Amino acid sequence: MIHMKDVSKIYENGAVALDHVNIDIDKGEFVFIVGASGAGKSTFIKLLLREALPTEGSLTVNGRNVVAMERQEVPYLRRGLGVIFQDYRLLPEKTVFENIAFAMQVIEAPRRMMQRSVNSVLDIVGLREKYKCFPSQLSGGEQQRVAIARAIVNRPAIVIADEPTGNLDPETSWDIMDIFTRINSAGTTIVMATHDKTIVDTMQKRVIAIEDGRIVRDEQRGGYGYED
Amino acid sequence: MKIRTSEYMIRETFLSLKRNNWMTVASVGTVAVSLFIFGMFLILAMNMNKMVASLESQVQISVYLKDDLSKGDRKDIETDIRGMQGIATVKFVSRDEALQRFKERLGDQKFLLDALGDANPLPDAFEVTVTHPDMVRTAAEAIGNFKGVESAKYGQDVIQHLFDITRLIRIMGFTLMALLAGATLFIISNTIRLTVFARRKEIAIMKYVGATDWFIRWPFLLEGMVLGFLGGVIAVVLLNSVYSAIVVKVYSTLAFFPLIQEYPFLIYVTLLILVSGMCIGALGSTISLKRFLRV
Ligand SMILES: Nc1ncnc2c1ncn2[C@@H]1O[C@H](COP(=O)(O)OP(=O)(O)O)[C@@H](O)[C@H]1O
Ligand SMILES: [Mg+2]
Questions:
Q1: Distance CA A174, CA B135 (A)
Q2: What range does the domain containing B145 cover?
Q3: Complex ipTM value
Q4: Is B209–A111 a contact, with Cβ atoms under 8 angstroms apart?
Q5: Domain check: are A129 and A74 in the same one?
Q6: Pocket test for ligand 1, best of A41, A43, A45, A194 (most atoms within 8 A of CB)
Q7: Atom of ligand 1 nearest to the CA of A162
Q8: What is the pLDDT of residues B203-236, one digit of tens each?
Q9: Whose CA is closest to B69, among B153, B149, B143?
Q10: Global pTM?
Q11: Distance from the alpha carbon of residue B195 to the mean position of ligand 2, in angstroms
Q12: Could you give the CA distance from residue B235 to residue B273 in angstroms, rounded to a whole number?
């Protein structure tokens, strides 16, 4: 699914965000990327989405060579990836239903599938009743669930989440993790950047720890590893 | 493009025209003014061209003969002229006839000729017309060299003046057009920039879920083209009514004045203006997209 070989990312201002990183993630895995703020987690995710290009090294995502990719191919790479951010990024003037359907609309998915697909992901995140609500009428946790629904509505092979529980209280965070667990058991690969120690320690999934752009640990059933 | 996609594009375009309403009005207004002025210059220049052409074709060459030519010499010259290529008519005007005409033209000021007494200072002449206006110059020069011909003249000065005026109008037109096109592009690209700004969150999400560049661009391009088109429509309506009014006015007072007929001329102008409007709109949004929409 994801093969990153000797990848470094140095920003234009000279900041070394990733330093010779090697990571292989297989289909169906659930992987936490952990590390303090500024460690390079978001940069790693940006490379997967091709929001940024590696300064050196090679990267394949979903069988596509991200480094050599033509510009026109980028949208098709992203259609295979569902992405979720800390700040939800919903459109405030659209309803829950419209926010999710929007993701199908802009990739020109057949309209007859829209109703059914949106309803089915609303069921997965448990928001069937709130489909008519606007984001401002929802709690933070509910908004994040809408964002997850939007990320999975086009059935991506990989779901990528950058600190999805960063703005949520612990209880709500667990609702989100439950949804991720369910999505993962249906076969979708999950890559989640976080610095939530409790979640990582409890879930007992693969943990890749980054410090100053370098991988310092990669364990199959790990915990967060150290105290913040 | 798929039908539901076109629907989406069109809806987005009009939503955004509504959202930017003041900028929309300003852009459409600027395009309308620019295209109206462009159209006026176009119409003016084309009418000047037509006028020059028609004056040239009416221009006749006056061939003044030397004094004391025999009838035979005169006949020979006439035959020679008629034998030249591109000559339409040759008409002899005797010096008496010429004086008579001159007197008529002077009208009230005929007394000016009293000083001449009975003397007639005018020479015998031929009036020659040509079949194609561009032959006037060469024919006049050739005839001027004939033996027995004093000089051959045509309205060089008038034509030269008209040429100069036409060229001036063209230069002014081009300069003004360049300035106006610049202003129009500026305001359209600014309007589109506002749209891009208003929709930046949406655009970011579209990119994340895998919308193609063209899918993202289309509504903005359409918006620019609609702005240009609407401006063009206003310009065209104004131009059509102004030109029709001018044509009516001119025909009622200066019937001989060679204006270009309204139809199909105005139809061509209309098409040209509308297409120009849409092109300038598309160009304006392209500029804006290049600068502000890094997709
Ligand atoms: N666009 C950027 N330009 C320059 N430096 C950046 C940029 N984004 C991140 N960085 C730097 O790269 C390093 C890693 O940042 P980031 O990947 O955001 O870490 P994390 O997500 O783990 O907090 C930090 O030192 C940060 O300052
Ligand atoms: Mg980050």
A1: 95
A2: 60-154
A3: 0.90
A4: no
A5: no
A6: A43
A7: 21
A8: 889 999 999 988 888 888 888 899 899 999 999 9
A9: B149
A10: 0.74
A11: 29
A12: 8
